[in-house]
Amino acid sequence: MDLVDRAREFATAAHRGVGQLRKYTGQPYDEHLHRVAEIVRTVTDDPEMLAAGWLHDVVEDTPTTIEEIGREFGPGVRELVDALTDVSRPHHGNRVVRKALDREHLAAAPARAQTVKLADLIDNCDDICKHAPGFGRVYLEEMGLLLDVLASADPKLMGRARKVHEKWSRRLAQAPRAEHKPAVPGGLRARLGRPLEHFARAYQARDIAEPMPDALAELPTPTQLVAERAPLTEVIEALSRHDTAYVVAEGGKVVGTIARAQMQGPIVRMWLFGMVTTIEWTLTEDIRASGVDITGLLSPARVRKAEGLHQSRAAAGRDVALLDCLQLSDKVRIHLATDSNPRPLFRGASKAESQRLVRDLEDLRNSLAHAQDIVAHDWTQIVRLARRLDELAAE
């Protein structure tokens, strides 16, 4: 099997393994990867570039690391995928700041990587502007800035990208704009703020790091480095990209290492369980305070299941409300239907993505409660949750 076929099989399995779909269409994610690779093929038959077309999102969106790409596909493909993987993270600042960091990263990328990025932009632009014109206007502005820095990319594909950009710019300039509804103060975001801030500071990289045993065989890349006092969300981000994160003291010296296996320990488990519990508790109290008729917002089957649990707890002498017998997914469904500041936890997420985050929370909580392997089974869920909470805390 040649390099491109191996990349196709690897990427397809990786994205399907985490249940990833295209945001607006619900297509299997590998449909996008296939289109990107085929766009690249219109200007080159370079097998490493075609492989990178298939693999360009695999580090950002699946448990795969940069080092694993190198082991599976060699240094050339690793270099391309590394260049195509965003370096910005929520703690760096707002979207404008983060996108500027990613542009700087791509501006320094090799010409082959810049060409693959053009293919990605072309396919994403068509998809986003067609299905989400409101966000499409934001994407077009960001795409225009990116096109200006991809100076080494293939000229033919650059011309195609600019035509796609111009086409959608004209169309969306004529399309009606949706009415903007300002956020209402309060709601879930305000109630989660203090506990999230507490959890963000409660545990740090130095709390779980292992001391450096020997001198480094090779220097870490910047995306592998985390400060001693960095919150665990930053550690998770580093480990979402690399096999190992390196902990740096104030003077710049590497003083410790953190591998994914260390995320199995009690400190990380307490932190994650606290995050999930905080979200569920806040949802429950908000619903309780609203006085809404919860039975009218759930299916009969969900109500019957909650009533059965309620009756069994009452028989055991436990005085609980029906609300306390609902599953987390039920509470989220009610919250989305009633909260005055809609979908703060899921802001920017499609319905499918919101449902996926709820499943992530439930699966992760079950794994934590039963002391199961959270790295082998829940790593992608942990990364998604850390990113969403990091974004929420940074707002």
Your description of this structure?
With 395 residues, the protein is mainly α. The protein folds into two domains: 3-174, Orthogonal Bundle (Hypothetical protein af1432), CATH 1.10.3210; 266-394, no CATH class. It is built from 18 helices and four strands. A four-stranded mixed sheet has the order 1-4-3-2.
Outline of this structure?
With 395 residues, the protein is mainly alpha-helical. The chain is built from 18 helices and 4 strands.
Furnish the topology, listing elements before pairings.
Blueprint lengths: L2 H15 L12 H12 L5 H9 L2 H4 L4 H8 L1 H10 L10 H13 L3 H21 L1 H17 L5 H20 L12 H16 L2 H4 L1 E2 L13 E3 L4 H10 L2 E5 L5 E6 L6 H25 L9 H16 L12 H11 L12 H19 L4 H21 L1
Parallel strand pairs: 2-3
Antiparallel strand pairs: 1-4, 3-4
Helix pairs in contact: 1-3, 2-3, 2-8, 3-6, 3-8, 5-6, 6-8, 7-9, 8-9, 8-10, 9-10, 11-14, 11-18, 13-18, 14-16, 14-17, 17-18
The CATH superfamily of the largest domain appears as Hypothetical protein af1432
Number of domains: 2
Alpha-carbon distance between the two ends: 47 Å
Assess the beta-strand content as a share of residues.
under 5%
pLDDT < 50 stretches: 181-188, 340-344
Classify the fold: give the CATH topology of the largest domain.
Hypothetical protein af1432
Question: Major sheet, described briefly?
Answer: 4 strands, mixed
Number of helices: 18
Helical amount among residues, as a percent range?
A: 55-70%
- Largest beta sheet: what is the strand line-up? 1-4-3-2
State the name of the first-level CATH class of the largest domain.
Mainly Alpha
CATH architecture of the largest domain: Orthogonal Bundle
